[in-house]
Amino acid sequence: MVDFGLGCTRAAHEAGLRGKDFAAGFVTHLHSDHVVELPGFLLWNWGDPVEGFTGPVSVLGPGRDETHPAGGTLAGTRDLVAHALRAYSYDIDIRVHDEARPDLAALLRTVDLATPAHGSAEAARPFEVYEDSRVKVTGILVEHPPVRPALAFRFDTDAGSVVFSGDTAECAGLAVLAQGADVLVHEAVNLDFYADKGFAPAFLNHQRLSHTTPEGAGRVAAAAGVGRLVLSHLAGRAEPEWWSSRAAAFFDGPVDVAASGQRFAVGAPVASAV
Ligand SMILES: [Zn+2]
């Protein structure tokens, strides 16, 4: 799973995925629209009664932000999960004792990823995130100010490779991470939509500095030489053609505008692939 936005628990279930299939979750950054349903996903997919996970699973994401202009230390992924487990301790304790479910906390391997400092030489290079028998995951820092770190992830498997941009402004590092990938799933923003609606300058500025136009997503896809660009997590409304035509002006390959529940084939068909 990549990010845990609103509706992810139901969407995963409707896609035929069950908790027992869950091995690891990857959090790009800690904006609430990317993590609000992480507690719900874990609580809904835990233990035999719900076909949930009963062995160790991993949740990996950004660590604490100790340099933020807001001051103090902002919570990281481990904090988020630990606090959620405390908040739902009544339910967890009840189910451990009443339904003989395993201890949820003991099943979770939550990792604050060690990420390069922004602006350092290492920040321009991909770093290792996770590996098991089926997938190798690498990450790179992307530009989503003032959120730091914000991450993109690349998933390499025998069947092919997929890259998720997370939230980012047009980012050269992302093109490095996505080099030659089969599919690039990239966010996009329609700045005209927000300008026309008269949104506040601070909000418009955030959209401009922290997100990517469809033209920009097309440029990144072209620079990376990916096989397919899928635009997803779209900010501001427009018809699918509005998004795809702007990206296609800069990228020769296929461009899709993702709909909820949509599936994309990667590489050669694999019988067990979902
Ligand atoms: Zn964000």
From TrEMBL:
SUPFAM superfamilies cross-referenced by the UniProt entry: Metallo-hydrolase/oxidoreductase
CDD domains membership: arylsulfatase_AtsA-like_MBL-fold
Gene3D superfamilies membership: Ribonuclease Z/Hydroxyacylglutathione hydrolase-like
Domain (Metallo-beta-lactamase): residue spans on this chain: 92-233
Presence of keyword Secreted: no
Single GO MF descriptor: 3'-tRNA processing endoribonuclease activity
The UniProt record lists the keyword Hydrolase: yes
The organism's place on the tree of life at top rank: Bacteria
Keyword field: Endonuclease, Hydrolase, Nuclease
Protein's name according to its UniProt entry: MBL fold metallo-hydrolase
Species this chain originates from: Arthrobacter mobilis
